[in-house]
Amino acid sequence: MSIIKQSSLFTVFLIIFGFILRYYSVYNLGIEINFLSIAVNVLIAGLIGGAGFYLGQLTGKESLAIKHLALSAALVFLISHTLSYLLGLYQISWFAYVAVVFTAAFIAALRIPKIFSKVK
Fold first, then answer.
1. Close Cβ partners of 103 (under 8 Å, ≥ 6 residues apart)
2. What pTM was computed for the model?
3. CA atoms within 13 A on the CB side of 35
4. pLDDT per residue over 36-63, tens digit each?
5. Nearest CA-CA partner of 1 in 120, 101, 113, 76
6. Residue 106: how many CB atoms within 10 A of its CB?
7. CA–CA dist 42, 22 (Å, integer)
8. Which of 13-22, 27-36, 45-54, 96-105 has the lowest mean pLDDT?
9. Distance CA 56, CA 14 (A)
10. How many helices and strands, by DSSP H and E, does the chain display?
11. How far apart, in whole angstroms, are the C-alpha atoms of residue 11 and residue 26?
12. Cα–Cα distance between 73 and 67 in angstroms, integer?
């Protein structure tokens, strides 16, 4: 599969996982946040994460299966969300969170193909 297709699938998975998990947490807490604002926030972060993954794929030049792309997107979201929460990046700036998403996606594109190639 080409790098553009992989990056596009990763971006779609990242947006889907991000939206589901963010909307669930907002709904579960009972906070009144507009549906559209959550969608825009997740869309922008997902696109920037997809760009990081694309650059990582250009550097690493290794392909992943679709199930591994989905797992990678879930891991990138969870790692970036948890790290941003622990470091307080949400209070500092939204750009700091986006930088963490970009960096996590870039590193995931480099490292995760090596992890799954050892499993085979």
1. 52
2. 0.84
3. 0
4. 888 888 899 899 999 999 999 998 888 8
5. 113
6. 21
7. 8
8. 27-36
9. 15
10. 5, 0
11. 22
12. 10
